[in-house]
Amino acid sequence: MANKLISIKTVVAIGIGAAIMFVLMRFVAIPSGIPNTNLNLSPAIVAVFAAVFGPLAGLFIGFIGHTLTDLTWGSPWWSWIIADAIFGLLIGIFWKFFKVEEGKFALPQVLIFNLTQILANAVAWVVIAPTLDILIYQEPSDKVIVQGAVASALNAGVILTIGTILLLGYSRTRIKAGSLKQGGEYNASKK
User: How does pLDDT run across 133-170, given as a tens digit for each residue?
Assistant: First the structure.
């Protein structure tokens, strides 16, 4: 059997993650006071799915979820769509370090995850989004830098709290390697 670039499990995760992201961005957004910058729960979903399913899931969930949201508001804002996709990709690159699927998401992994997401937020929202806003849309630099910094901080806070809680809970449902020991043999003659 040839190696697959992406598993069916990951494709399903992308569909579910993008749908959840869309719903949260579209219907559960709280204005931050900075124009076109909201507090919402969708960054936690992107981060959680990327931490569990890897970089391709993070990339496509961020891209598809944000694109669908923008399409329902009018037209896509590509600089922020690309930033969301790269954010998901960056979190997903480090997914093996988080050990969520092995049921070992404990304090060291929580710290690694949150350091990773804070840095990924900074790259996506303080560097990529403002740079693309300036290059693609000729937006004023002072405006987009403030938007990016606020988005980065809000996203990091949401992921630090909600994302971490979701990953801790999900990790607890996973069976740790070696936790199941072979017990006694079943004897059919005993009743």
Answer: 999 999 999 999 999 999 999 999 999 999 999 999 99
Q: Distance (Å, rounded) from C-alpha 187 to C-alpha 182?
A: 15
- pTM for this one? 0.87
Instruction: Determine if residue 190 is left, alpha or beta; phi over 0 gives left, psi from -120 to 50 gives alpha, anything else beta.
Output: beta
Query: What single string gives the DSSP state of each residue in the chain?
Result: -PPPSS-HHHHHHHHHHHHHHHHHHHHSEEEEEETTEEEESHHHHHHHHHHHH-HHHHHHHHHHHHHHHHHHHSS--HHHHHHHHHHHHHHHHTHHHH-TTTT---HHHHHHHHHHHHHHHIIIIIIIHHHHHHHHH---HHHHHHHHHHHHHHHHHHIIIIIHHHHHHHHHTSPPTT-SPP-PPP-TT--
Domain 10-172 = CATH 1.10.1760.20: yes
Measured between alpha carbons, how far is 101 from 104 in angstroms, rounded to an integer? Answer: 8
